[in-house]
Amino acid sequence: MANPGYGKRSVPDQHRRTKHDFTHLPPREATTDGGSRWITRSWWSRTARDDAWWAAFTRGAVPDDPHPPERPGPSRSRAHILLAALGRTAPVLSLSAADCAALAPLLTEWFARGATDEAVLRALTEGLPTPVHHPAALVRRRLVDKLPPEPVVRPAPRRVLECAECGRPGRPEALTGGVCGACRGERAPAQPRTPLPALAVHARAGEIRAAMSVRRQERTPV
Fold first, then answer.
1. Domain ranges, ordered by start, for the chain
2. Comparing C-alpha atoms, which of 59, 45, 49, 54 is closest to residue 15?
3. Do 57 and 63 touch, CB atoms closer than 8 A?
4. pTM over 0.85
């Protein structure tokens, strides 16, 4: 029943207003016809909502304008929500809906690189100039200039264990029950022989022929 303005927001799918909407609340919380009072922020809904709905609504994830059930309003990204709420932390950086839509892709890259909401707010709001003439231009400049580096992907550590019997290092899959194959009595597979190069084969054949020739000469009678 508050008058329009001062940030009043509507929520979708409301029941019709009745005089009994808030009669279950304590007197200090009830909406009355007499007098007026100042408040900082308060949300009411004639339709009962669960905690998850209210949490999404306070983050700006629930659209302001009512939509038919078959045509729900578009959801806003994490980057868009943070930018839209930026003016709460730094009023001089209040952005329009068009500004948020244009800057959201730049901020999405921050989140892709592991930045937290708190880190983004610090980067955008600390050390602001006075005055700020163009909030959207300043936010864009900081989103570009202060973009964090891509996270370094470290290779998984190579796992090497030791045999519980002899202490010989080996891969986990080779140490059944923590014991290597040799300690389990397994015979190592025969290693294939490496073939000799062609030059070595020819040289060895020449040595054999020379030895045979010498032996024939020794057997020849004088």
1. 1-70, 78-145, 159-186
2. 45
3. no
4. no
